[in-house]
Amino acid sequence: MPTRSIRSVLPLLRMRPLAAGALALIVAASQAQAAPSKLVVFGDSLSDNGNASALVGQYGLDLPAEPYFEGRFSNGPVAVEVMASQLGLSLDNHAFGGALSGVNNRINALGLLDGTGVQGQITSYLSGTGGTTDASALYVVWGGANDFLSSPTAATVNTAISNLAQNVNLLYQAGARDFFIPNLPDLSTTADAIEAGGAEQAGAHQLSVAFNTALAQTMAGLQSSLQGAHIQVFDTFGALATLRADYIAQGYNVTQGCWDGDMFGQGSLCADPSKYYLWDGLHPTAGVHQAVGQAFAQAVAVPEPAAWALSLVGVGMVGLMAHRRRTTVAQTVAA
């Protein structure tokens, strides 16, 4: 599979302004980072590789049920699994589908998922490690979307950003130093938002932009105040906009989910998931996860150039991966 240098990618990227107000990766610019020892993940359904399913399964619940892939909220491996594989790192994944940025979870599963929000995951993790972390690991903290699904208001921006800042600080105080923080995709491009249309869809876009702008500013502040920390903010919003445009150019479906049913297995499935951008009303397909995971890995693996150049890797790499994904999707998508 051919590769391209950052220099060769940049001319293409200059034609694509970053969405969400020119968000930048925030990087400790002085020295290149050593290779991480492992990937530790905290997040929601975009990162959950079976944790929620395993927990509720102990009580006889099958959620999410087939055709969801082995407990994931998609039809194949999620982005952080691809990221870990690409980087050759072991994956320590604590993400739970439905996780809010704080302590709790928005999925009503008889209370079984209470306490599994992103902050709840971190608290539980630190409890199990005696309050310490591996300083050489890379910590992914990705959340916020479920906060807006529960309460799509401007006040939620402040709440979610405050929670995520606390989450990074909790890990930092326990010894973590290397952080990878993806921002939110454009929530107005989910099948549910598209179906709602009008003011609701427009509001989802505005909240996504507001959150991402605040996230960049907040993480910049933490980068300045947390001595020795290295914080990368990945522009998921811009990266997925590029990938979605490729799907549109290919004539693929970007407005409906391949699966039109619920998480309990009631519904109907499309004939070819590889020709869909969305798996269900909220989540992307395995092909999208594959491209994003590869872009995550590329952003981490690139040596430290100027921060402005690195900020574009998310958009550029996903654009390039979009043309490669079809052969990979055939291997990863659960039929």
TrEMBL record:
**InterPro entries, per this entry?**
GDSL, GDSL_Est/Lipase, Ice-binding_C, SGNH_hydro_sf
MF (Gene Ontology): hydrolase activity, acting on ester bonds
The chain positions of domain Ice-binding protein C-terminal read 301-325
Sorted UniProt keywords:
Hydrolase, Signal
What is this protein identified as? Lipolytic enzyme
Q: Signal peptide: which range, if any?
A: 1-34
Q: Look up and give the organism this protein is from.
A: Aquabacterium soli
